[in-house]
């Protein structure tokens, strides 16, 4: 049986092969799907190049690739070309599981609805929030209007969706239920393998307290508010912020750090891999801070908890399903974030307590447990995806599926 899925990454084509320049979706990325389905077709944007990209190959004898126009941003003509190219997906597979929200998922969903073909979603985020927070450079009324339009479009997409496998336990499926909510289930797609977990003992009363933030350098990751919070409390003790990530606002953040007089306390590491930098920084840190304005279930936060690291986070997405309310702060509230950091970085006992709690909570995200849940849902989709209203996911579980 063949499954068609989508992704929002920009891939590369060299000769007759397809590559992932960010090394995020190589062959191993799809092993859970290929454990349930015989073959896989990936639909995504792609650009043909003349030189070997020296990165992970995506396609093989079981993974096919359907490339569409490599449009970017608000390229309306490029989007229209991609939409027309997506039309050929109808009838190409036995089941359709679309990673959403995303432009490619919306295009594929459009043609499937027109053909009355059921499809399912891998729901990973809230498109309304992302739309609002990435358009804040325009006036607030326009930003709100853009959010409403995006939410309307996504709700139309969800009307043709007959089941969600969401990355949060409750939050996303409550906001965007499918046309058949009894088929919706939450199970994080973050694969925390055994080697990631470490019950790590730390000295929570160091001379210099190391704080870590891992995120793409984008406006909706909230770095501005983290910088402002640290500016307010910069003289309370010796500290250092390790910023891991790359993106278009790097120079803007450097200027802001200088303006707020914290530039000497911030290390901009750029992009780092797990094995060649991130793991060492996490193990030598004392506090992880997530300042995002929107998230689904952030992998970096779960990885920090798996290394026994205390966590303070904005109350976004499904974070409150894994982090206690006492460690959460509202988005865009620099004062509240400053107070929360101050309360904990001056209390070794509180940090130690949080460290122990986090390591205990994160056990629910072990790969073996979540992989089993996802496999059961994917198996239901495979066996009953052509009649999802007759034999729902809930019924399937009740009879011992």
UniProtKB/TrEMBL annotation:
Entry-linked Pfam families: Glycos_transf_1
E.C. number: 2.4.1.57
Domain Glycosyl transferase family: 204-357
SUPFAM superfamilies, alphabetized: UDP-Glycosyltransferase/glycogen phosphorylase
Coiled coil feature spans: none
Keywords for this protein: Glycosyltransferase, Transferase
Gene3D superfamilies registered for this protein in UniProt: Glycogen Phosphorylase B (3.40.50.2000)
Gene Ontology molecular function, alphabetical: glycosyltransferase activity
Domain of life: Bacteria
Family matches, as PANTHER family: GLYCOSYLTRANSFERASE
Name under which the protein is recorded: GDP-mannose-dependent alpha-(1-6)-phosphatidylinositol monomannoside mannosyltransferase
The organism of origin for this protein: Limihaloglobus sulfuriphilus
């Amino acid at each position: 049986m063949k499954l068609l899925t989508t992704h929002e990454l920009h891939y590369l084509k060299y000769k007759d092969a397809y590559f992932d320049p960010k090394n995020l979706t190589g062959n191993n990325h799809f092993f859970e799907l290929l454990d349930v389905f015989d073959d896989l077709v990936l639909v995504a944007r792609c650009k043909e190049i003349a030189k070997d990209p020296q990165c992970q190959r995506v396609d093989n004898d079981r993974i096919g690739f359907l490339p569409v126009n490599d449009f970017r941003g608000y390229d309306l003509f490029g989007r229209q070309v991609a939409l027309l190219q997506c039309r050929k997906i109808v009838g190409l597979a036995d089941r359709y599981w679309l990673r959403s929200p995303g432009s490619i998922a919306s295009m594929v969903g459009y043609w499937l609805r027109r053909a009355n073909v059921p499809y399912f979603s891998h729901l990973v985020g809230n498109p309304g929030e992302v739309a609002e927070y990435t358009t804040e450079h325009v006036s607030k009324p326009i930003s709100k209007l853009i959010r409403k339009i995006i939410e309307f479009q996504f709700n139309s997409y969800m009307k043709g969706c007959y089941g969600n496998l969401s990355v949060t336990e409750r939050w996303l499926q409550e906001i965007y239920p499918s046309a058949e909510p009894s088929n919706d289930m939450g199970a994080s797609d973050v694969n925390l393998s055994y080697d990631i977990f470490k019950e790590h003992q730390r000295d929570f009363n160091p001379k210099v307290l190391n704080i870590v933030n891992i995120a793409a350098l984008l406006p909706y990751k909230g770095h501005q508010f983290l910088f402002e919070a640290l500016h307010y409390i910069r003289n309370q003790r010796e500290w250092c912020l390790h910023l891991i990530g790359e993106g278009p606002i790097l120079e803007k953040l450097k200027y802001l750090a200088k303006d707020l007089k914290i530039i000497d306390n911030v290390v901009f590491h750029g992009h780092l891999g797990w094995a060649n930098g991130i793991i060492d920084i996490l193990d030598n840190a004392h506090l992880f801070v997530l300042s995002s304005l929107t998230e689904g279930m952030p992998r970096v936060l779960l990885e920090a908890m798996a290394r026994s690291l205390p966590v303070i986070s904005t109350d976004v997405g499904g974070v409150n399903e894994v982090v206690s309310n006492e460690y959460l702060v509202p988005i865009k509230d620099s004062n509240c974030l400053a107070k929360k950091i101050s309360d904990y970085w001056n209390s070794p006992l509180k940090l130690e307590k949080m460290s122990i709690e986090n390591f205990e909570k994160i056990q629910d995200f072990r790969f073996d447990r979540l992989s089993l849940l996802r496999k059961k849902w994917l198996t239901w989709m495979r066996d009953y995806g052509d009649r999802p209203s007759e034999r729902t996911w809930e019924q399937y579980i009740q009879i011992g599926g």
